[in-house]
Amino acid sequence: MLRSLLLFASRQDRVHTALQALPASRAVVDRFVAGETTAAAVHTGSALVAAGLNVTYNFLGEYETDPDRITRTLDAFVTFAGQLADSGLGSEVSELSLKLSALGQLDGPDGPARALDRARVVCAAAKGAGVLVTLDMEDHTTTDSTLEIARELRRDFPLTGVAVQAALRRTPADCTELQRAGARVRLVKGAYREPPSVAFQRRPAVDRAYVRCLRTLFAGGARPLVATHDPRLIGISAELARRHGRTPGDFEHQMLFGVRGDEQRRLAAAGHCVRVYLPFGPEWYGYFTRRLAERPANTLFLLRALARPS
After folding, report:
1. DSSP state, 290?
2. Helix or strand (DSSP H, E) at 49
3. Catalytic residue among 118, 136, 275, 291
4. N or C, which end of the chain has less CB nearby within 10 Å?
């Protein structure tokens, strides 16, 4: 019930405005979001790299339809890739996490083609800066188009990654295709509210699907990007890596900024490649409320902060 309520709130402008107005909420948001500017993102990212971590930068925004805003978003990605290179954050320690709907809606006869053209621009700028790109996965209605765009991008930019969601019933089959292609695959549990016809609804089922996908990715030619904070799943990925002769450089652990920072540093100190998913930008609200929906502990953290005197 709480998760459904928070996912509903993520789409409500009035709740967004009210949350911004609460002084205590800023400190809570700052736990999960680097800031609203590229300078803030570079500052936080530099500190993470200095601590031995790699970074995925998520310039927040999605479901964009306004042509001027789409153009500004595209320009912002290109400019930011250059900023990362200028700051010494190239050489694949940095990655751009690209949500295709930020570059225009994927529905309609021309939507995927336009998104592909714009994504090519981002990938070209990132390649020139020594920065990786991974496509975020959105709700299930965009899965086919996102996977197809990723497939096309890999023709010219072979290191382009794509996220898949274990909660979707189709994902084990998608992982089979992606490992055959030798793709970089970020495996997440999934943060969208999806109907039972296309997605598992209960956590045990999602976890079992996640393990099935891990087995496929580690056994094949993919580079698994294991995006989870679950200690059990992290342990299973380590065992699969050992079983299939994977070195720490053959796969990544990926975790969210603000979640299990001690574990991120522990894994990095043990020689693993750990990449921190670092969101930034003024469009932080939808991302923030989805993080609350994913983990009850995050919601309790917010409520405690809001209860303190400002």
Report:
1. H
2. helix 38-50
3. 136
4. N
